[in-house]
Design a protein that fits this description.
Strand order of the largest sheet of chain B: 1-2
Shape of chain A: flat
Helix content of chain A: over 70%
Number of domains of chain A: 2
Helix content of chain B: over 70%
Number of strands of chain B: 2
Order of helices and strands of chain B: HHHHHHHHEEHHHHHHHHHHHHHHH
Largest interface: A-B, 71 and 62 residues
Shape of chain B: globular
Number of strands of chain A: 2
Radius of gyration of chain B: 22 Å
Largest sheet of chain B: 2 strands, antiparallel
Number of domains of chain B: 1
Radius of gyration of chain A: 26 Å
Oligomer: heterodimer
Strand order of the largest sheet of chain A: 1-2
Number of helices of chain B: 23
Structural class of chain B: mainly alpha
Distance between the termini of chain B: 39 Å
Chain lengths: ~250, ~525
């Protein structure tokens, strides 16, 4: 959590945003049937589906306004000017480029790419392995320069994957080569691992950390995935190359 | 059920658990997992219960409850390990334990402190279990008299009080978080007229927002971001000697144990607030009542005992409103509510008719969980402490994968992930800006109850709010809500202190000097 001074300054904006959000809820709720007929039933205001959202919207708007007022009373209107000056200064760029924020961007990109890109399209074990390899190596190596390099390498790989799916290459390629997307992901995984190895090979401590990261990243998805797939009988979000192999082994009649 | 029949059923349920090797394995495994979740800074018992819920949907209700309650009990106790040995609370519930636990470890009495927390946590859970069994029939009977107005007001009170007590900054932020949760609960088709609200034409939103992905997102994702972004490192663990049960210290402090247990049960029973507040209040009460308050903070055994009894007593306390009213008493209890619904059990006043003996069964599980927690604590503490050596950069990404597969596994719906992730990111920003997350989650859970009951009540009264003032329980609840809101205003606080000062001279000044509960050093929840 931030310091009290900063909190009050952000409260002005968060309070205003919450106030507007409450207003939006009310406007949306007013579009719901209040006294009109819905599904053949004549409505009365007190059973209308709008009544509760209206109540919630009013409360959010009221509380957002109050928060904004309290914050303005505490830090005054001067805070506006200070914030605008800060936004126009070099400090903003420095803030956005800070190491702590780089770590934040990396985590956000990792989660977004995992959930919205790889999980629905690529075999679960491969996508989880990719996610863990990148996540653990980048943070466990604990080196700002390495983190930057690995982040940009991962970003480049993700852009390639986005283009591959956005251009619709998966369907025609999939007809020629089975599990084309999974094979592409394996190539990405191998190139990332090699790149990370090249970066750490000169340092014995980092080499040890790299080995631990690779082992954990490889073992964890298999343990978790196997429990869900074969013991809890949950089909994986996307089943491809690895699931085909594990299915073959699991259901193989010795 | 007659008293003897109830006692008989209780022991029968306990014996059933003890005689089944699978149940014993699940019991000890879950308790151990709970202790690990509690001990690891960054992981909470709420997250533990949330992640394990996704693995229990294939089990029968009793086994699932055994698994989830054991992890809850273990998680609440496990936080004391890191509090005592590295001065970092494993969970928010054990933050107060660190104040005196760590100085004890520095004196070389870490083993004694862990032994004391183990025994006192088990005693706290057992006392709260007794309260659950004794009070539940009365509350259930009382709740049967409730009409829709009372249920609406109760849900509303739950959100308000949770917002008031859990906010680390301004109380108003807690209330905003609660109402944001209520808004999320509005999404989907309404239950009375089936009208789509805030669905934007997306069919997946028609059934509303799923509780479990929201819970996992709200508690799991911000935790991962915070720990990795701020490069949180676990410090070096203090060495400790043999762990003994410390029965001597326990016997000497029976009145203090009873006081701490009462505080724990009472605070646990208040909707939406949990073990952390119980531990702080109990610590404060122990210090106020002590003949040597100057020893507190320097390694006082009664302080460790009071906080640990209270936070574990909260577990049973939180079960009382959860099972009898359908209102969770703490964040992990909110998760348990989701799990119960998943297993077709709807907690509330009708639970004794729909599932006779279920509350007794829960009490038996609590007893078994506390006993197994004591055994695991006594025998495996030295081994469990080794998990504190695992770097956070390794286990947090694995928790990320568990959050994702866990959210997906419930309903096998990939849309749950699309919901969980934005909720997680928004929760992270809200936490950074000083908004508590527990009221948001309580809002999501109590939203449908508040919505349905408000409209049903108005339907019965033909749009009149008069029954709020004519029905005694509704009026009491309404007055409590009004007081909860008004008491936050500065001028009311001023007049209250003035009146208290006139009636009890010297007390007003003492009230002013008391630290605000929410300004606790941990913001883990």
């Amino acid at each position: 959590m931030m310091e009290k001074d900063k909190l009050r300054k952000t409260d002005i904006y968060s309070g205003a945003a919450i106030f507007l959000f409450g207003l939006w809820i009310i406007l949306q709720a007013l579009k719901m049937p209040m006294k009109d007929s819905w599904g053949g039933v004549q409505n009365v205001w007190y059973v209308s589906p709008a009544i509760f959202p209206l109540f919630v919207g009013c409360m959010i708007m009221l509380l957002g306004g109050l928060l904004c007022r309290i914050a303005l009373k505490t830090v005054g209107f001067k805070a506006f000017g200070q914030t605008v000056r800060w936004l126009l200064s070099k400090n903003l760029l420095q803030f956005l480029n800070s190491l702590s924020n780089l770590r934040y961007y990396f985590i956000v990109v990792l989660f977004l790419s995992f959930v919205f890109l790889t999980i629905p399209r690529i075999d679960f074990f491969l996508s989880a392995f990719l996610f863990l390899v990148v996540f653990i190596t980048s943070f466990y190596l604990d080196d700002a320069i390495l983190l930057k390099k690995l982040f940009f390498f991962y970003l480049a790989g993700i852009i390639v994957l986005i283009l591959y799916f956005a251009l619709g290459l998966n369907d025609p390629l999939g007809r020629i080569v089975p599990f084309a997307a999974d094979i592409l992901t394996i190539c990405f995984l191998v190139s990332y691992s090699v790149y990370a190895w090249l970066l750490v090979r000169g340092n014995p401590l980092l080499r040890k950390k790299y080995r631990i990261a690779m082992i954990v990243a490889f073992v964890s998805p298999f343990v978790v995935g196997m429990i869900f797939k074969y013991f809890l009988l949950v089909p994986m979000p996307s089943e491809g190359l690895v699931v085909a192999v594990t299915d073959y082994l699991w259901y193989f009649e010795f | 059920m007659v008293l003897f029949e109830r006692i008989g059923f209780f022991f029968q349920a306990a014996f059933q658990i003890a005689s089944d090797p699978l149940h014993i394995a699940i019991l000890f495994g879950s308790v151990l997992l709970g202790i690990i979740f509690g001990a690891m800074p960054g992981l909470t018992s709420t997250l533990g219960v949330a992640l394990l819920t996704t693995m229990t949907y294939g089990m029968d209700t009793a086994t699932a409850m055994l698994c989830l309650l054991s992890i809850y009990v273990g998680g609440t106790y496990g936080g004391s390990y890191s509090s005592i040995l590295i001065n970092i609370p494993g969970t928010a519930a054990s933050a107060a334990t660190a104040l005196d636990g760590y100085p004890l470890a520095l004196k070389g009495e870490g083993g004694k402190a862990i032994g004391l927390t183990t025994t006192s946590s088990a005693i706290g859970t057992i006392i709260s279990m007794l309260f659950l069994v004794c009070i539940s029939p009365m509350i259930s009977f009382f709740a049967l008299q409730f009409t829709s107005f009372e249920f609406f007001l109760l849900a509303f009170f739950g959100i308000l009080i949770s917002g008031t007590l859990t906010s680390p900054d301004l109380v108003i932020k807690g209330w905003i978080a609660g109402f944001l949760g209520l808004f999320l609960a509005c999404v989907g088709r309404d239950m009375l007229q089936f009208y789509p609200r805030f669905t934007f034409g997306i069919p997946e939103l028609d059934s509303g927002v799923e509780v479990v992905p929201v819970l996992i997102g709200a508690f799991g994702i911000p935790q991962i971001i915070q720990i990795l972004k701020d490069q949180f490192q676990i410090g070096e663990t203090q060495k400790f000697q043999r762990i003994l049960p410390e029965f001597g210290t326990i016997l000497k402090n029976i009145p203090k144990i009873i006081r701490a247990a009462l505080i724990g049960v009472g605070i646990g029973a208040v909707p939406g607030i949990g073990e952390d507040i119980a531990a702080w209040v109990s610590y404060g009460a122990a210090k106020n009542a002590s003949k040597h308050p100057e020893r507190f903070g320097k390694g006082e055994y009664t302080a460790v005992l009071s906080t640990e009894v209270a936070n574990n007593a909260c577990v049973g306390g939180a079960m009382i409103p959860l099972l009898n009213l359908g209102i969770p008493g703490s964040p992990p209890a909110a998760m348990l509510l989701g799990a119960l619904m998943l297993h077709g059990v709807t907690p509330g006043p009708m639970i004794n008719f729909e599932h006779p003996g279920f509350i007794i069964e829960v009490a038996a599980i609590l007893l078994m969980a506390s006993l197994s927690m004591w055994v695991v604590g006594m025998l495996l503490a030295k081994q469990v402490v080794k998990v504190l050596r695992i770097p956070t950069q390794i286990f947090m990404p694995i928790i990320g994968v568990l959050c994702i597969i866990g959210s997906y596994a419930l309903g096998m719906n990939i849309y749950n992930l699309y919901l969980m992730l934005p909720v997680g990111f928004i929760s992270y920003f809200l936490i950074e800006m000083g908004y508590p997350i527990a009221p948001l989650v309580i809002g999501v859970i109590l939203g449908p109850m508040a919505d349905e009951n408000l409209r049903r009540a108005l339907m019965v009264s033909q749009g009149s709010f008069l029954p709020v003032f004519t029905r005694p329980v509704a009026l009491v609840l309404f007055l409590i809500i009004v007081w909860t809101v008004l008491s936050q205003f500065q001028f009311i606080k001023h007049y209250k202190n003035k009146i208290v000062g006139k009636i009890f001279p010297g007390r007003a000044a003492k009230i002013e000097l008391l630290p605000k509960i929410s300004s606790k050093p941990s913001e883990k929840k």
